[in-house]
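hey
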């Protein structure tokens, strides 16, 4: 699909990085330790922090992401910045003839995301939306043990993060993060990957806030009805009004259940409980980065397609509309 002749002739993939936060650092570490890639430049929001980042990795600082995506010495743009800007940067990078890797979601707007998927095809460039939750130990354990519980009829997935006080950062900003289940798209993508397409969504969402742009807490309660008949209940919350951290995933099937509480798993069947080993969550962004390079250079398949991420974005947007209108929303077909 792509012209990878330059890479296959042993020239490294030249990468420009948008962002200097935690994710960007993990990307940079993976890139500098892989001889198939060359980290060229970075652009950040805070000049002092960006300069320090550039010194750490001995790379060039670029004044703006607009300048970065147009540079001739960049083959691949990795977008590790606030959710709001993902779509805009991805579009200009693709239009400039660059391959693109972006953290989920591809965009906060479904129509824009659809356009970007088509643009990447037209440009014959890679568009990869990172979904490392699919690579993690919990998800792999779920996939391995699902056949043991028979027909699944109900799933519950709760992630609650108390923070006292809530940080005044972009993940608590309406515009920069987006609707909670769009900014935290992985909460729904894990379910879609496991259980397929969704028929309808009913969502209730509440914010606690003392100013317009930033909030101190959010609580998002969502019910999904899958086309298979499976029902799912997803709770996502963070901030000052929450008091007990929780990361729990329950699968209830006709022949048993799977209970994952934190990093501990159980298979429950007919009065017996068997522990399930759950692999570590560390190193997943490095694994994703390696897989991107494998794909660009050798053509090996990636673990997720932009179309799959786009579909989950449609489900998340249905949740947004449901919360705003107080109605159950029917999800469009793929």
């Amino acid at each position: 699909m792509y012209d990878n002749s330059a890479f296959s002739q042993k020239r490294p993939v030249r990468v420009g990085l948008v962002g200097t936060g935690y994710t960007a650092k993990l990307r940079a570490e993976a890139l500098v330790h892989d001889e198939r890639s060359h980290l060229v430049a970075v652009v950040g929001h805070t000049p002092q922090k960006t300069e320090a980042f550039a010194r750490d990795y001995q790379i060039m600082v670029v004044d703006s992401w607009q300048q970065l995506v147009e540079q001739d010495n960049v083959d691949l743009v990795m977008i590790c910045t606030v959710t709001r800007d993902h779509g805009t940067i991805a579009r200009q990078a693709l239009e400039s003839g660059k391959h693109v890797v972006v953290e989920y979601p591809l965009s906060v707007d479904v129509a824009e995301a659809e356009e970007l998927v088509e643009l990447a095809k037209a440009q014959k460039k890679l568009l990869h939306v990172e979904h490392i939750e699919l690579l993690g130990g919990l998800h792999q354990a779920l996939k391995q043990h699902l056949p043991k519980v028979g027909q699944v009829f109900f799933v519950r997935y709760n992630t609650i993060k108390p923070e006292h006080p809530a940080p005044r950062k972009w993940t608590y900003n309406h515009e920069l993060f987006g609707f909670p289940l769009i900014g935290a798209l992985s909460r729904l993508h894990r379910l879609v990957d496991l259980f397929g397409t969704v028929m309808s969504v009913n969502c209730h969402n509440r914010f606690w806030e003392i100013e317009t742009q930033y909030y101190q807490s959010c609580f998002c309660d969502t019910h999904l009805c899958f086309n298979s008949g499976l029902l799912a209940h997803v709770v996502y919350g963070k901030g000052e009004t929450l008091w007990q951290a929780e990361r729990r995933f329950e699968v209830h099937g006709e022949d048993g259940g799977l209970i994952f509480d934190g990093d501990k798993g159980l298979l429950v069947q007919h009065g017996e409980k068997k522990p399930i080993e759950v692999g570590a969550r560390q190193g997943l962004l490095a694994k994703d980065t390696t897989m991107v390079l494998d794909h660009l250079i050798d053509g090996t398949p990636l673990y997720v397609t932009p179309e799959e991420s786009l579909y989950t974005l449609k489900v998340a947007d249905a949740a947004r509309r449901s919360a705003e209108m107080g109605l159950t929303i029917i999800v469009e077909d793929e």
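The first strand starts at residue 13 and ends at 18. The chain has two domains: 5-130, 134-280+314-330.
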